[in-house]
Structure formats: structure tokens, C-alpha cells
Amino acid sequence: MAQPIPLDSMHTSGPMSSARSHNELTAEVLHELVEHLRQNRTQLREEWARRITEARLLTAMTKEEIFAEATSVYDNYVEALATGTFEALQAYSRNLSERIIPRGVETHEVVGIVLLLRDVLARSLFSKYQADFTKLDRILDAYEPAANRIANTVAVGFVQERERVIRQQQEAIRELSTPVLQVRERLLILPIIGVIDPQRARQLTEQLLRGIRTNRAKVVVIDITGVAAMDASVANHLVQTVEASRLLGATVIVTGLSPEIAQTLVNIGVDLGKMNTVGDLQGGIEQAERLLGYKVVPMAEAN
Amino acid sequence: MEVPILKQGDILIATVQAALTDTDLLQLRRALVEKAARERARAIIIDLTAMDVMDSFASRIMRETAHMIRLRGAETVIVGIQPDVAFAMVQLGLTMGGVTTALDLEEGLEYLHRKFTTIL
User: Fold this and answer.
1) Using 50, 70 and 90 to split pLDDT, how confident is the model at B46?
2) In this structure, which of A220, A235, A278, B69 has its CB flanked by the most CB atoms within 10 Å?
């Protein structure tokens, strides 16, 4: 069960006669080490949980939770030492990060607890082998690189998970900033608010064209009341979006142009025959309804 | 690769199956313009769903085809341009001015049916 740790991926130092005997020696020493950690599981685990509370780490979690997690981390830790494979530990640290990140656990806490465990275990090794310094030296030669790698794995797992969450949120914000809404069968509205930079403009186009296809839209109202001004390149992009929509068979109505944007469009020389513009969103929707053959009347008149 | 041209009542439907070379495009134009009159078609639908790229040559040939067919007495609807392709074309200034476009074959057929029934 105790397989040798892949030594090529680890840095070790210490006296050795040949690489092969060193391999065997390390495996043997690690095996002894793992046995020691298994035998003293209860005591070391408690010691570790106590040190975590003392250091005021993981304050977002209750004592029981800390102890439960400490147990799992301890077992995974010993397992990684015993087998020399880090996949299980990697998966566990990802899973742990997934659970604790939403509760506001910080990077320094996660790194802190793993380093504490490293410390607790090292101390227990010191006290066990204090009489036999040569043996302690060999044990540490085997233990240190593996422990470092474990600490690394857990910390990297945590940071990766955090980055994944951040990426996901960025994506969500980006999508929220350009909603493509269907208001009637085959009629889409794209309200744009705020500053449009080239990247956002590109994304708007992409979402609109995709929206036209998935909703099978015939008319699209792009409302830019919330955009104070745009530079020539973004204005050009807007015109291109209108033309691309036409190639997909949809008519675009642009509403709410500010005087500045109107000026920009005239300056870049937009062909006004191609561009359908209406003063405000209400007018735009009314015209869109006419194009689609709708007629909105008050209930009293309809009856 | 030859593009099959199907007859559906008054309408001819040409569905592009794969990327076309310049020769294929010219051949398609010749076939469509010739067939439009021979089959007494009122309209022609060119389905470009399978085209991943539309360069300036392809766009020009499509536009010219539509105009030639107009002169031969039928109407052309180009359908199935992909969103990415549409935007790339517009950025290259290939806007297919004066040619009717529709989302897909279904939309194109519906457009033509509506148009024919209002004329009749």
C-alpha cells in the first residue's frame, strides 16, 4: 500500500550512496512516518484543531465544523504522503474551497491552517526522534518536500477556485450589462445604458445577433437613451450591427439618440436610408408593432 | 461541388451544402440565372447556412446573381447567413444592398408567400 513517492518531481537533499538505495530508503522512511501519523491520528488532529482556534483562523466556521474539516484534511494529508499521489487531495481541496469561499474564508487562513498542520506534524516528529538525530534527519528529508508539495496543492486549489468564482461573476456582470429582451413575438429590445467601449460594443453585437437567431426576431429596437455619447469607432460599430441584423432578416430601429450621438453619426456620414431612427423608446416600439402588423388599442375601443 | 437547385412550386431553392470555390460560385450563378427563366420561377431562395465564410467575391457574386435574376423577372431572397458571417461581411463593407435577406429557409418562404398573396 505504501508506494514510493515519485522522486523526480520532488527535491530532496541529504546523504545518499546511490539513487536507487536512496529511493528505497525514502520509501521505507515515509512508510514509517505514515504509520506514526496514523497511530497518533486522534491526538495530532485535536492538537491541530486547537492551534487553529488559538491562531483565530477560520473564524467564519464553528468549532465542530473546524474539527470535521480538520479530520478530512488530516486524512487526505496522510493519504497523499502514503501514496505520493495528489489527485485525491487536489479534488478535496477544490471541493473544500467551493464550500468555504462563499462564507468569506480568506487565502491567508487556508494557507495558515495547512502550514499549522505541517508545524504540528513536524513537532511530533521532533519529539519522537529527538534521541536519534540521523533518523530524524532522514525522516525530515522525506517529509519536508512532500509536505511542501501538499501545502502548495491546497493553496493553489484554493486560489484556482477563487479565480473561477471571480471569472464566473465577471461573466455574469458582462451578460447583465447587455440584456436582449423579447417584448412581443419576434420583437426584441436592447436597452443600452452607460459607456460603450469597443469591447462592450463587440459583445453587444454578438449577443444581439445571437438573440435574433434564437428568438427568430423580425424587428429589434436598440434604445440608447442611457448612452450620453459615443466615439466614431463605436458609432461605426453600431451602424455595422444594424446592417448585420438586416443580413439576418431583421429590421433595426434605433431610439433615444442624444444630440451628441446624432452629431457623431452625421460626422461619420451614415447613410440615413439604411438607418431607422425614432425619437424615444415608446415611438420605437410603436413603429416596431406597426411593422409586425400589431395594433394596440384601449380596451374600451376594442370592444 | 455542385449546388442542388430544387423546384418547389413557383420557387427555386438552392441550398449550399459546403464551402464553395470561386468556380462553384460562378457555376451556381449561371445555373440559377438560366433556370429562373426556364422554370418560370417567381422567386429564388439561396440558403447559405453552410457557408462559414463569405469573402468579397462570394458576396459580390450573390449580389450580382440577385440583380441578374431580378432582370430575368424573378425575385431573390438570401437566407441563413450566420451571425458571425453577417458581422464579418459588414465589417468588410459587404452589405448586400438591395437584396432581400431572411433568417432561414422557413422565414424566406413565409416572406415570399405573404408577398405573393398580397399581389394576387
Assistant:
1) very high
2) A220
Are B24 and B51 in contact by the 8 Å Cβ rule? The answer is no
Residues 6+ apart with CB under 8 A from A101: A158, A161, A162, A165
The answer to whether the CB atoms of B89 and A205 lie below 8 A apart is no
pTM greater than 0.80: no
Residue A202 Cα to chain centre, angstroms: 23
Domains located in chain B, CATH noted: 5-119 (3.30.750.24)
Of A212, A243, A250, nearest to B95 by CB-CB distance is A243
**A213 reaches B (C-beta below 8 A):** yes
- DSSP structure string for A12-80: --S--S-HHHHHHHHHHHHHHHHHHHHHTHHHHHHHHHHHHHHTT--TTS-HHHHHHHHHHHHHHHHHH
- φ/ψ bin of A121: left (φ > 0), alpha (ψ from -120 to 50), beta (otherwise): alpha
Could you give the domains of chain A?
A: 7-174 (1.10.490.70), 181-302 (3.30.750.24)
Query: Among all residues of chain B, which has the CA nearest to that of A241?
Result: B87
ipTM for this model: 0.75
Residue whose C-alpha cell is 491567508: A108
| C-alpha span between A24 and A235 (Å, rounded) | 71
Q: Which residue, chain included where needed, has cell 506514526?
A: A36
Q: Contact A257/A277 with Cβ under 8 angstroms?
A: yes
In contact, B100 and B111? CB cutoff 8 Å: yes
